[in-house]
């Protein structure tokens, strides 16, 4: 079985390899953490205290508008980073919730430690910037899908991007993420050849 820190190293090496000296200091800020199903890790009005690295489980970031309508914004699962990133990096209160959908296992690094390392190490600063650029690219792609695609096209795009997601995320959350009524989502599953 691969250790969580080795899984993190594998992802870092794939996306933006760190020199050994930087990896050594970066790897020391991560601590194990686990959470039960449906546990809210970050609440609206709180500052995000941690950057999470997902080892196991599925989570989501979601939002409630002033009419109490819910919007699922993003899912996180292994191997990826999670949390409310704008709150973490800007050190401002969150406008979003971060919740586990299944029992979850993480490594997590405190915002204080992470931000201090970005000040100390140019390589770690560039790693964080690379992660942000990738996240921004994903957000822009998602905005284009939401504005331009039909329900079926959004569903197909989601399955292309994450073919395993139907087995990992409850369908009511996928329907919410796509902005589709749950009944219509069920019809899409039956209609679209997977």
UniProtKB/TrEMBL annotation:
Domain Cyclic nucleotide-binding, chain residue ranges per copy: 35-120
Pfam families, per database record: cNMP_binding
Protein name per its UniProtKB record: Crp/Fnr family transcriptional regulator
């Amino acid at each position: 079985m691969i250790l969580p820190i080795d899984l993190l190293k594998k992802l870092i090496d794939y996306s933006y390899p760190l020199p050994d000296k930087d990896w050594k200091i970066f790897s020391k800020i991560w601590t194990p953490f686990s959470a039960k199903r449906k546990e809210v890790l970050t609440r609206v009005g709180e500052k995000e205290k941690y950057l999470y690295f997902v080892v196991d489980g599925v989570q989501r970031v979601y939002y409630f508008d002033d009419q109490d309508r819910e919007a699922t914004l993003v899912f996180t699962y292994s191997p990826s980073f999670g949390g409310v990133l704008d709150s973490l990096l800007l050190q401002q209160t969150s406008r979003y919730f971060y919740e586990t959908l299944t029992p979850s296992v993480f490594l997590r690094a405190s915002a204080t430690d992470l931000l201090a390392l970005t000040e100390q190490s140019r390589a770690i600063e560039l790693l964080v910037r690379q992660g942000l650029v990738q996240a921004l690219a994903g957000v822009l792609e998602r905005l284009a899908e939401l504005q331009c695609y039909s329900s079926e096209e959004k569903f197909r795009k989601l399955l292309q991007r994450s073919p395993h997601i139907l087995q990992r995320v409850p369908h009511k959350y996928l329907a919410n993420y796509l902005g589709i009524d749950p009944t219509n989502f069920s019809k899409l599953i039956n209609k679209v050849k997977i």
